[in-house]
């Protein structure tokens, strides 16, 4: 389906063409008509399906024709990275229409607060905000949301996982009951259904097939002990000189600096990014990665849903994600917009059952590649992880027929 079939304003179609979009994605095909018809909406769609344009385009089309001023649309997102990403995408799509947008998120200084306050009290049409920072401004008493006509919750499941439900409920209390509410979520657990019943009225429901990485992603895994992981990554990168943009995910921010230290001095620029960095530093690190000045970026899951960088050649899961859905989001950073990419996961002994759950979720078994001889042998694939300590080994030895347990 072509975008001109939605009968959007010519200025928006020009921006869409300028940004390289041709045909609508399934979520766009289904959501845009419902939003144009002013229905509330609950949509289940994962990262990389085009859901941002699905809700932004019909809102921009409506805003470009309005006469009133003040905050018309409030978009709530879980992380500052996603807030910045949405702000950039909205500004790109709104390039040829008279609509203004401002992102409100934590991590800034006093000057940022003043800029945000001005945006919230002037004539910004669209505000993209993280829950905590929006609450902070609302508590000061100068933010007026009485003219809001559109409330959008993006990555709703992530916000609830992060404990933002009370903040969301408080923000909703400031907004007129007569509004259009759109909720987008990568998963649809009972708590999302419950929230939808509270804030949506007779919503249209859309569910795009999810929990499966894009077809262009070549997935593979290695069975490794922890001490083999960084040498393996260095070996993989050394053998792929044409991979100019590599993203390595680890599950804890404490590991980011450790991995960066072990990977530096190998002939390519590598940096780390986590919530420990100030916002200005994080922006600078991301800018260097986008500009291909940094070849390898080590990141925590804070970036798995909130990063929008084109042409990422390789995604490496240094750790198996704790949540099977997070695997899909991490892997979704490559092979975007119908391109191809590679996603590799490093699996230690204790993460094998967790990785099996991921395979069950995405409906396919991921190939396990052998380690290079110089790295030594890795653990043997098993779904029964056994603790490795002397007491355990002694206990197992005492049973006839079991013999010495393998180090799995």
Describe this structure in words.
- The protein has 408 residues and is an alpha/beta fold.
- It has two domains: 3-207, Rossmann fold (3-Layer(aba) Sandwich); 217-246 and 300-391, P-loop containing nucleotide triphosphate hydrolases (Rossmann fold, 3-Layer(aba) Sandwich).
- The chain is built from 15 helices and 14 strands.
- The strands form two sheets. Strands 3-4-2-5-6-1-7 form a seven-stranded parallel sheet, with helices on both faces. A seven-stranded parallel sheet has the order 10-11-9-12-13-8-14, sandwiched between helices.
- Helix 2 (26-36) packs parallel to helix 3 (51-63), helix 3 (51-63) crosses helix 4 and helix 13 (324-331) crosses helix 14.
- The protein starts with 9 loop residues before the first helix and ends in an 11-residue tail after the last helix.
Outline:
The chain has 15 helices and 14 strands. The chain has about 400 residues and is α/β, with parallel strands linked by helices.
* Derived structural class: alpha/beta
Global outline: globular
- CATH top level class name of the largest domain: Alpha Beta
**Helix amount:** 25-40%
State the order of secondary-structure elements, H for helix, E for strand: HHEHEHEHEHEHHEHEEHEHEHEEHEHEH
Oligomer: single chain
Question: How many distinct folded domains?
Answer: 2
What is the strand arrangement across the widest sheet?
3-4-2-5-6-1-7
End-to-end gap: 51 Å
- CATH topology value of the largest domain: Rossmann fold
Percent strand:
15-25%
CATH architecture of the largest domain: 3-Layer(aba) Sandwich
| Main beta-sheet strand count, sense and barrel state | 7 strands, parallel
Give the C-alpha Rg. Answer: 23 Å
Number of helices: 15
Going by CATH, what is the homologous superfamily of the largest domain?
P-loop containing nucleotide triphosphate hydrolases
- How many strands appear in the DSSP assignment? 14
Give the mean pLDDT. Answer: 84
Stretches with pLDDT under 50, minimum 5 residues: 386-408
